[in-house]
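Honest question from a wet-lab person: if I give you the sequences of every part of a complex, can you actually get the arrangement of the whole thing, not just the pieces? Trying it with mine:
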Amino acid sequence: MGWFDDNFIPAVDGVAYGLLLFVVAAGLTLAFGSGGVLNLAHGTLYAFAAYTATAVADGSWVGLALAVLAGIGAGAAGGGVLAALTAPIAGRGHMAQAMLTFGVALVGGDLLTTWFGKDDPQVLVPGALEKPVSILGHNYPGYRLAFIVVAIVLGVGGWYVLARTRIGAAVRASVDDPEMLAAGGISPARVRTGVLVAAGALAGLAGGLGAPIIGPSTSVANTVLLQSLLVVVIGGLGSVGGALLAAILVGEVQTLGVTLMPDLAPYLLFATMAVMLIARTARFGPTGSRV
Amino acid sequence: MTPASPISRRSFRVTSAGLLAGALAFTAACSGSAADDKKGGSSSGTLKIGLTIPLTGVYAALGPDLQNGFQTYLDQHGGKLGGHKIELVITDEGDGPATSVPSVTKLIKQDKVTAVVGLTNAATVAANVQVVNDNKVPMIGAVGRPGKIDKPDYVWHTSYLSEEPGVAAAPYIKENVPGAVYAIGPDYQGGWDQLRGFTETYDKAGGKLANPDGKTKFTPFPGTTNFQPYFTEIKNSGAKAVYTFYAGTAAVNFVKQYKQSDVKDIPLYAAGFLTEGAVLGAEGDAAKGVFTSLNYTPTLDIPANRSFVAAYQGKYNALPTMMSATMYDAAAVLDKAIAAAGDKVTPETVNAAISKTGKVDSPRGSWEFNPSTHAPVQKWYLREVKQDGTALSNVMVRELGTLG
Amino acid sequence: MTTLALRARTALHSPRARLVGRVLAVAAIVWLFAAPYLVGLFTLILLSQALSLGVLAASVAVLGGGAGLPSLGQVAPYAVGGYTAAILAEHGMRIGVVHTLVAAAAGALFNALTAPIVVRTRGVTVLMITLAVGELVRTAAEKWKSVTGGTDGKSGVPPIQPFWGMGDLVDDVDTYWYVLLTTLVVIGITAVVLRSPAGLLLDGARENETRMRATGHPVTRYLSVTYIGVGALAGVAGALLISVQRYISPAHIGFDTSSLVLLAVVIGGGASLVGAMIGAGLIVFTRDWLSGPWPGHGPLLLGALFLIAVYTLPGGLVGLTAGGPRAAWRALGRATGTPDLPDEPADPEKAETAEKAEEGKAEKPATTEQAAPPAADPDALLTITGLTRRYGALAAVDGLDLTVRRGARHALLGPNGAGKSTVLGMIAGATPVTSGTIVFAGRDITRLAPARRSRIGIARAFQQPAVVPSLSVLDNVALAAWRHARITGAAWRPVRYRALAGEAATHLETVGLTDRADEIAGELSHGSRRLLDIAMALAGHPTLLLLDEPAAGLTDTDIVRLATVLKALPAEVTMVLVEHNFALVREVTDTVTVLASGQLLATGTPDEIAADQAVRDTYLGASEPEHQEVG
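Yes, you can. This is the full assembly:
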């Protein structure tokens, strides 16, 4: 019981953290796999949504719901702006898009501090969620526990939509082969816009729900971008299942990892990424992917 | 893909040529040439003072506190220091040396300031020691102080040495906490120094850390946003209290998560930054009851502080923070030194005069520079976060003695 | 011949590009020399820093634009060089020249250690794995306090002395001169190496790795050498950083720096050294100089710079001002609607995956006729026994026995999905063999690497003509002849190149492309590219030439040209031809083997095969829609 008991809370927390990263990374992987945009402004969309949600939230349940909706709206709007900005350079390759989205991230960071101020805002959640909850004799933040539940519900719902509905089939088709939709008479530009708005909405959903966990600050965009990039790379570009496993892994590395291997903890994330890439290169060849 | 029309290609080319020409023009427009640049003394009445403060990056929230503190002194003294009209030149400190070295260099080489003031991040100070010593321009740091400065000839701090908050707090904690204390902090130089101050003094006082290996737990910096795993370890260690140092966003995360975890009932002691300034607002009620050690509290009841707080609140509608007070004092030090430099005000004469400042009558009480460390000999205070009217405030509990 | 070779050199870097590039470089250098008399001290110090960062950017340009390995990890050897120089200075060794050399060695050594995990990756994977390397080194710099000074960095580094007997470098103007001269020397050396014939090897490796390997080039070794070389360059940049600001900390080597440097390269225009340096300069001046009047908005201005650059400089500064061959190719791509040059290097797997897709559709083998195992034939150049290639449960080639006589003109025929291309791929070494053996000239080559097979005389022309699009026609053939010509002299010496080009010209004559020698390969018509591809295969002096559907997509006129070339092949070259065009097969071959579903169906002269009923049936079978859609 001792070892398990000592590490129970970190392990649970790794799941909460991982699920949050998963929602962010799902947007990143969607934008890359289907929209063809290596979006370095994805963390900025999270930050925008988190700031917006924080501004809306007032500590009531209605406020929380409105905050999440506002987060989604902010993320989707940001995705729309990105779609408009990247439209003229679609087809110019990843480097041009990386430069553009990096520029957007820098400009966006400046705008966010102009709009929302430089101070970290206080994130208000309903009192019932603010209190610690006791699980197996340990106190654990109630909000995080609720988030795990909500994320699982969202995940199952998302899976159902993707796997069992016609819209899901269209999305999957666009990920597998963006040109196929074009052949079916849907304008590729519209598909790109749709995909980027959806990816932004995912970042916004994460920002809205995640503000009490990874709160809005001047540095949050970088943190979230780097970690979701790690998730996407470790999970394999374009793979949703891989991203889920990778997100939990990255979450656990930062929770269990720091308690079990404190000296190695700072190296763990990037070392994991390097090892995964080497292994995948050995298996799938130089680009490390199946394509 | 659309074929590029000849016209758009030409306009591309014109634009790119414009970019290049612009770049050359920017540099050419810079007045004078390096070959005949002379370091500026000042013959005219107006002096330039450079502020290098964080306007972007992790510590961006501190920027206004710093600037407003300095400005408050200027406002109280008719915009003059030592009888000279002062022109402030502000540059960005950013996240550290990559941004701050060019900023300080610009202040010295281009603006030819009489002194550089501000500097939150200890690494920023470390990076610029060379710059100010080479150029013989005084630099007065108001917050972070590197672990070791070999030659602080032109480097001064109105704040403290990084280990002092811990040194000040340790004897009190040893006396008042019945049992072992768990020490935790961020894994970088500032964190190491802050925690070393505490653990060494605590050890000398006969205390024993609750940490399983007897050593401070250091958390990855700045990557750590999640402290839950550490709280579990703290709980398991059976600690009777926790001592820590975090600042900025990390402080907000630490305090909020602390109050929702297994350790919520274990007393939390910290260096003052954990609850200082803007972070206190973001922490909200979670910060209530946190004890911190610092050289300043806005609730200090002495005349110098009362007038400072009133002036600051009147203009900025917020309580001053330690950073505001140390910047206010930096202005006070310069005021004296520039006056003492007399007719020949140069960065060098001002630096020489700073070493003879003597007692500074400060909002935090009177203090003076230690001649070897160039940091204050000053009183320390224990503060507790309490509701003060509508807002939370760091309310003074008691004095912790004089250090420096 | 020599004049042609010389003309080819100018074709490689097209005359206008060279002129504009040179004017730009000369103007920049003149301005840099005049700068101390034109600009203020602060600007001059920024210039010193921009030069140091520019050397780092140049190293990324060589790696990304040159070798096709876009890197976010060059900050690692940069840090190693910087910390090495700082430690040297602290221990009393303060001679700048020594710093430069030792830092270069340290940077190169570091990259030599990480080369094995980097040079085998391509595309986005390179970016990610180098990002990991850079971040791990940064973390180590933060943690290893006794050596690196930890997060505060190494401050108070003593000033350096440029050379023995010279004074301390403390004056900003003196420092600038030192940095400028060191930069010009190392960038000059790099430029000379890149402009030498050795630069061709990188162009080839970046743009068409499969072809390079097929013509015997050990591409991985080239990339390793380049990667180690740019490690030295980054190490020098680190030493320069120390001479300028006498301080280094982990803040200088994080993701921020790597991404800014990479974007400097993109702004500059890919492979261009001058472009990368100007890009680095623009970034430093935008962030640190322009932000003066608006303190705190450095990132905003930098972001604006990137947005402006993306929209107005699609080919980078150099691409647009110079209109070099690559820009020309891109412009062509835009104009014709064909895709741009890939940002990612040619993927050797793609060919195989395409084959997989095709061959994977092969139906379950349905043997109509089993050929007797071949008798040991003294005339045999190539003997294939029991050759099998499986993709999962599907056998694309299933127990094939085949003998090709020395000097034969041997055609492989069969419906789509019969396994012809897979057989060719296995003979060339591009497709791994599941079981069976391939014996070539008495030697078992079943497990030999493609480049080794090329060197013992197996050459391959590809289904899609595999040329290096940005190089001239002559340069393409010279590259293909490189590993086969008996020419001594170091790779970077022009004399070697002249000899190579002379030999290449004879092969161009063979395929009738002599008058197009100076043209850029990417601009050729499909038919001419096909002939160029064959010339490249011939440049290896092969004993066995493998041709994969050479007539596919050609016009009638081009097919006539092709037939003429194939008929005129030297007698000592044995040819194996995969082809659907039976008229062409009849005209140029003497033996035909028909495959169906990965197995041998019939062998004989073209006339015998034309009359064979079983073959007709198979071809009728091939017209089922399922097969046709693969085409």
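Two things worth pointing out. The beta strands of chain C are 380-391, 394-405, 409-413, 435-440, 443-444, 458-461, 544-548, 574-578, 591-596, 599-604. Confidence is low (pLDDT under 50) at residues 1-16, 321-375, 620-631 of chain C.
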